[in-house]
Amino acid sequence: MELKKQIEQLFKAESENGLFGRDFLLTWKKSESDLRMVLEVADILKQMREQNISPKVYDSGLAVSIFRDNSTRTRFSYASAANLLGMEVQDMDEEKSQIAHGETVRETANMISFLTDFIGIRDDMYLGEGNKYMREVGAALNEGFEKGVLPSRPGIVNLQCDIDHPTQSMADLLHLKKEFGSLEALRGKKMVMSWAYSPSYGKPLSVPQGIIGLMSRFGMDITLAHPEGYGLIPEIVDIAKHNSRNSAGNFKITHSMEDAVKDADIVYPKSWAPFHIMQQRTALLKTGDKAGLNALEQTCLAENGKFKNWEYTETMKKLTKNQDALYMHCLPADISGVSCNEGEVNADVFEKYRIKTYHEAGFKPYIIAAMMFTNKFEHPAQALKEILERVNKRFGV
Amino acid sequence: MELKKQIEQLFKAESENGLFGRDFLLTWKKSESDLRMVLEVADILKQMREQNISPKVYDSGLAVSIFRDNSTRTRFSYASAANLLGMEVQDMDEEKSQIAHGETVRETANMISFLTDFIGIRDDMYLGEGNKYMREVGAALNEGFEKGVLPSRPGIVNLQCDIDHPTQSMADLLHLKKEFGSLEALRGKKMVMSWAYSPSYGKPLSVPQGIIGLMSRFGMDITLAHPEGYGLIPEIVDIAKHNSRNSAGNFKITHSMEDAVKDADIVYPKSWAPFHIMQQRTALLKTGDKAGLNALEQTCLAENGKFKNWEYTETMKKLTKNQDALYMHCLPADISGVSCNEGEVNADVFEKYRIKTYHEAGFKPYIIAAMMFTNKFEHPAQALKEILERVNKRFGV
Amino acid sequence: MELKKQIEQLFKAESENGLFGRDFLLTWKKSESDLRMVLEVADILKQMREQNISPKVYDSGLAVSIFRDNSTRTRFSYASAANLLGMEVQDMDEEKSQIAHGETVRETANMISFLTDFIGIRDDMYLGEGNKYMREVGAALNEGFEKGVLPSRPGIVNLQCDIDHPTQSMADLLHLKKEFGSLEALRGKKMVMSWAYSPSYGKPLSVPQGIIGLMSRFGMDITLAHPEGYGLIPEIVDIAKHNSRNSAGNFKITHSMEDAVKDADIVYPKSWAPFHIMQQRTALLKTGDKAGLNALEQTCLAENGKFKNWEYTETMKKLTKNQDALYMHCLPADISGVSCNEGEVNADVFEKYRIKTYHEAGFKPYIIAAMMFTNKFEHPAQALKEILERVNKRFGV
Known about the structure:
Three copies of one chain form a homotrimer.
Chain A: H1 2-13, H2 32-50, E1 62-67, H3 73-85, E2 88-92, H4 103-111, E3 116-123, H5 130-146, E4 155-161, H6 166-180, E5 190-195, H7 206-215, E6 221-225, H8 234-246, E7 250-254, H9 257-261, E8 266-270, H10 275-287, H11 290-304, H12 314-318, E9 326-327, H13 347-362, H14 364-376, H15 380-390
Parallel strand pairs in A: 1-2, 1-3, 3-4, 5-6, 5-8, 6-7, 8-9
């Protein structure tokens, strides 16, 4: 039986679970073996669900979600993961415009955690804030647990911050693993993370940063493409470079989409706001300068308008490996002539890979569930083995 | 034991479950035996709940709700049904004013369904839109399931559209079955679906349409009463006529409430907006013409004001069979002198049947649960038998 | 085994459960033995949770929450309690500004209760309204249950009304029991419920009223301190006086924080609006007089400003027993220099007891769960014994 074997292999591979009891905030702070374990556990949980085997391990428990930004797919992914394992989602509505710190965070983190097992946080709007906020919550939870306020230390799952988007990038990686057969098969494959034009403004940097920060771990040939001035946070680019060297991969930056996509195996065209604009935006948001924000948006949109040719078109696609590079997107994409007049991707090109992008997105609930699972079970393979053996049906009498 | 016998009888009656794997959108697209099965399963589930027998069949799973209109009772009915069977409700907040189509629907339907078993949709505001939207969601789910994106095809439950309100009409039918003893006992009974005056405007057509479309299936003597110009969608009236002929019942339209209620066994007095007004309203909503909408509302309210005598009063009640026709309403009713100055029903008359309207409403959660149950179990009677035998308590240690 | 013994002792103490089938609205309507039982059951449930024993007793079921005021900690406490016992929370969003009565309450209470086990209500904004509303809901549920509309009578938990805040005061009492070793040890202890300055306006009276109404049951030496004109509802003060006499305790009122805290064992400094202001506010709210409300707020804030010296400072603390009275607060506190410029408590003093206030808050979910448990189990000790014996893990395979 396929699933049984897969769990046995995980058993052998399992050395030390570095994820046990630790928050999942940044992929580059996790060891390669830990990342592999998340992928493997996610894959097993997905198969269990498909085979009507219930991996429920909580008889009760809350999974709190804190979203400082509207979200549909990440919200549903988190709710699905929590529900699959037996937890109930409880939303914590923070005021979106407010940057909470210090006493408030310290107290609130404990007040919502007396019977909580996980806190999923999405906070991607302010540069320098989202990840910091998650670490503040984590420190407060540590204190609460150490002082006996909390019966256990709730795990934090980063559902997107200003720096990284690990549930997205890990879902993307699992998609690539499935598409190419194995992580090993990704070695040497050319992946292009490219900026693309969008009529909207201020899209976060966390997706492209998450992608280059993670995919560089597996020996891939990464090209980051964007117009001049549309750079990412320099420290994250450095991490990607460092990862590439370490994994005997390659990393380069180019300012032409055409150059970038030549012979590419994978193309991920997506809009984002330039780092320096995000910095100015954060400063203006902190002072509440609405006129300034408005002016910045206008400048930025006008600037963006110069790069409408950064669209992933049929012509671009023809330049890729076998004219058929795997197109990826975190969705929703800005599709020219469909969701906007001029956007990130041509409608025909998108349509060809549309179902694949759905598959890509479909890994996210299981990636989140796997992050939860590996946080709470010191020996995930053992736990999965026992789940398989106890045969609880997910649906049925 | 009553419940055991009832399940055994369902076993014998069970020939082919035409509901298995199919959305429940319109009662007139379902066979009579399928409708009978829903009623029977709902009744059994209700008794199980009352006898502290848990019919939980999901160890995990999401039931998504999409409400484009405010709702309390349908929302709670859906949540109760999902919870009874073991699913967690996850609300999907669509912008109310937006008519979503095409790419957005196709993508979103899949994004919220990776671990979803049911989607309940209420979309009754735009003529020609609600039911269409549900079918679009259904088509997207079909594609997702066929292409392997979704592990199973979530079922859709119509929680009210522009055409039908099947969870309401089926709850009403179960109420009638209980009040009169059997579906057979309804044959020849005179039921009046009557327009009634309300100071509010634009109430949907789906309740009266749902009632005449369903009750005409069981040989009843249906009278649809409304002032001239307050007609329903002609195609639905035709369906009711056709059903009446097929079931050897009777169907007529009259423009006098007094004439209608004479010797009636059942009276369902309820306000709705005229079809042609709803058409104009939909057109104005599509163009976002607020001034036009405002003007239309004023015209319509003035027009309504001519028919304040369409109130179900003590005098009207005296005209009915034994001066005691069963009063029905989907609630909340516009009660004269209670919830408004002049409304659909006289306060004393309402009070006499108030508790019966609560019982009527109380069937809805079980009707929804039965729609879910028959969608997912090919052999519902067998599943119910096993639930009865396994004796899981709903409450207790 | 500690837990086993504790349950056995509860068994012996258990005479008659006066909480069975009754709403928990006001602590002073409950017998002392019933209050002790809630504390004991809460303590046992907390230990079970900490020892990974699941006290889940519902296989399905809804716990409805009605909040007419924003809330984070009470909302999470209620959700946690419901989840722990196996119920799913379903929020009922009433319009905040609306005082619902009569037909609407009667009908809605039934419509949301067909499969509901508990309704938790927070309605503290209007004097003379919150508790009344809860009793109206209760009467409607009684009728629904008696007439066979509801399969069982949902219990009501008062999550804060205009008069009492029993889940808070009972959590505070359990905290005191733990801090001082037993309820008996509280006898003769000096507890000060003191008004304190806050830059905000209109804080409800229910916390101080709840505290003096409950703590006076156990022979404590209660001092209520506030500036002249900042009195509580006279009837509740009378109840506290009466309780004190009955329990051989002491109760006095003073208009000086300094006098009050001398030799105090426990100090609970918290702002509230004067009773007579709340009366005027309620009258203005009922007529929707925004200008009047605004004017009242300005007057009240100006009046408050005269009492900025009612801050619990290091100097005040030095006056207390061993210069170390237990500081209590329902949180969030107005901390001078932290959450406001000038507030209820000095930052250093608060910091010293901060973790203790977290522990204090941590009892609330279990108090609510215990209120639910004792409402539904006629013999709570027996049920707890069976839970202990069946050994269901809360988390694990």
